[in-house]
Write a sequence for this structure.
């Protein structure tokens, strides 16, 4: 069974631009969560999607948004990029909500904002 | 909010035993997770504790004391490949979404 895939793996953007990251969960998994990882703040929860609906949201500004499609694939968007948005963005999928024990992470997208 | 503390870095010798501690302050505890993350890779799930006591899984064990807000991850028979960051995460407040600590970087040397 294929794992969680994320595209692109690496991205360089300029301040003020916007970016869209993509995540394809493990086949059959319906819950997708997004995290931001930085050396200073560690791993922080962004949001969770299940059945095309945002179910939980972390403490991030409105510039961070996401969506989920009917095939469970998810995208997250960051508008008006800031230097501090440089981070590793991780997507994780699980079979259902509340399945944190069976949560699988993708390889991440490394975003650099210059 | 939550406060999760774990040491920044630890070193140990191949073949030895190491214990990585994690303390937390939270309300409405829903479980504690440990993840392993090798440099440049995604975190992988190691363990989940929701009740007090020790959970053993091969060379890795995880302990939880809810009354003390304390957990540890015990790694036995250390191997070089165990060099990685170990993340402690707590789910609480009616949510199963984990809040992560900063991680403990474990260096295993020969």
């Amino acid at each position: 069974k294929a794992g969680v895939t994320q595209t692109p793996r690496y991205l360089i953007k300029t301040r003020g631009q916007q970016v869209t990251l993509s995540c394809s969960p493990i086949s059959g998994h319906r819950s997708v969560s997004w995290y931001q990882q930085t050396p200073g703040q560690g791993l922080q929860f962004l949001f969770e999607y299940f059945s095309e609906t945002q179910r939980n949201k972390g403490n991030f500004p409105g510039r961070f948004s996401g969506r989920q499609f009917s095939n469970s694939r998810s995208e997250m968007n960051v508008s008006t990029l800031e230097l501090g948005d440089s981070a590793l963005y991780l997507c994780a999928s699980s079979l259902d909500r509340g399945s944190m024990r069976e949560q699988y992470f993708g390889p991440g997208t490394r975003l650099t904002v210059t | 909010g939550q406060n999760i503390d774990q040491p920044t870095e630890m070193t140990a010798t191949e073949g030895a035993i190491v214990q990585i501690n994690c303390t937390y302050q939270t309300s409405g505890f829903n479980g504690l997770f440990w993840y392993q993350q090798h440099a440049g890779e995604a975190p992988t799930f190691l363990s989940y504790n929701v009740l007090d006591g020790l959970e053993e899984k091969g060379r890795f064990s995880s302990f939880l004391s809810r009354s003390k807000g304390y957990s540890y991850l015990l790694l036995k028979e250390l191997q070089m490949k165990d060099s990685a960051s170990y993340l402690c995460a707590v789910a609480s407040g009616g949510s199963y979404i984990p809040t992560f600590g900063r991680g403990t970087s474990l260096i295993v040397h020969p």
About this structure: The longest strand of chain A covers residues 42-50. Chain A touches chain B through 21 residues (CB under 8 Å).
